[in-house]
Amino acid sequence: MLDTSKWTPYALAALRIMAALLFLEHATMKFLQFPAPIQGVSYPLPAIMIVAGVIEVITSILMIVGYQARIAAFIASGEMAAAYFMGHMPHGFWPSLNMGEPAILFCFVFLLIASAGGGAFALDNARRRAMA
């Protein structure tokens, strides 16, 4: 039987890095209007969008490099829960209709990272080895 458990840290690292890169794209859309401006948002950005963007930049970078990944993922997960309940839920219950699926997925992916850690290739691992 194939032992897949040895690959789990690498799969978790891939999930952490890719989710954080996609999350960072939301911040670049807010602040740089790249690759496009956010549809339906007026510029200058409302204060809540600026705060969300700052959280996205900081937590994304921390998760990409794997430094304090659990804390960053927990904060990002909370932001996505708030985004869903404040921005999507008022437009109806069903996530597929209120466009809230990405927020829910980000929320639970980040919750997994917050509980399981960053996996392989994380600065947290090097820091932990240096302290031991």
Detailed description of the structure:
The chain has 132 residues and is an all-alpha fold. The protein has one domain. It is built from six helices and no strands. The longest helix has 24 residues, at 8-31. The radius of gyration is 16 Å and the shape is globular. The N and C termini lie far apart (34 Å). It is found in: Cell membrane.
Summed up, what is this model?
With 132 residues, this protein is an all-alpha fold. The chain is 70% helix and 0% strand. The mean pLDDT is 94.
SSE topology sketch:
Layout: H1 8-31, H2 47-65, H3 69-88, H4 95-98, H5 101-116, H6 123-131
Residue ranges: pLDDT <50 for 5 or more in a row? none
User: What is the number of helices?
Assistant: 6
SSE topology string: HHHHHH
Give the percentage of residues in beta strands.
under 5%
Keywords: Cell membrane, Membrane, Transmembrane, Transmembrane helix
Subcellular location: Cell membrane
Protein name: DoxX family protein
Membrane topology: Multi-pass membrane protein
Give the key terms.
132 residues, transmembrane helix, 0% strand, transmembrane, mainly alpha, cell membrane
